[in-house]
Write a structure and sequence with these properties.
Blueprint: E1 2-11, H1 16-26, E2 31-38, E3 42-49, H2 52-61, E4 66-76, H3 82-92, E5 97-104, E6 110-116, H4 119-126
Antiparallel strand pairs: 1-3, 1-4, 2-3, 4-6, 5-6
Length: 127
């Protein structure tokens, strides 16, 4: 399923992630998945939240640069090789995976968040 992801640019210094998360907390936004990537100058916080528009508005009002992007949320079966089979289908279709990260809603339920160069085709390929 294609969903919205909030991406927030952060200064690469202590406390900035905490500040960003507090903004979302105070706005009443729930986070279900996140990923953090960094360079020497900035960090990129990617989040799956229950209200992407509300989250983006809260970050903007607090002076943060953020964007909403489409990503694919894929439920994972708890069986050996399931993720490998998904990645193989995507690769065989000539689709480039830009990034992905995991999400878990309980001890038995997991999903991956995937950004590819063609989300519609990816969703079709993996069924």
């Amino acid at each position: 399923m294609i969903i919205k992801q909030l991406s927030v640019f952060l200064e690469n210094r202590p406390g900035t992630m905490n500040e960003a998360l507090k903004i979302l907390k105070n706005a009443g936004v729930n986070i279900s998945a996140l990923s953090v990537a960094d360079t020497s100058e900035f960090g990129l916080l990617r989040l799956i939240v229950d209200d992407p528009d509300k989250a983006k508005k809260a970050m903007k009002e607090a002076g943060y640069t953020s964007s909403l992007n489409d990503v694919l949320d894929v439920d994972l079966k708890q069986e050996i090789g399931f993720l490998s089979d998904i990645i193989e289908k995507i690769s065989a279709a000539g689709i480039n995976i830009e990034y992905m990260y995991a999400s878990s809603s309980s001890s038995s339920q997991a999903s991956i968040i995937i950004k590819t160069d063609d989300l519609e085709k990816t969703a079709e390929v993996i069924g």
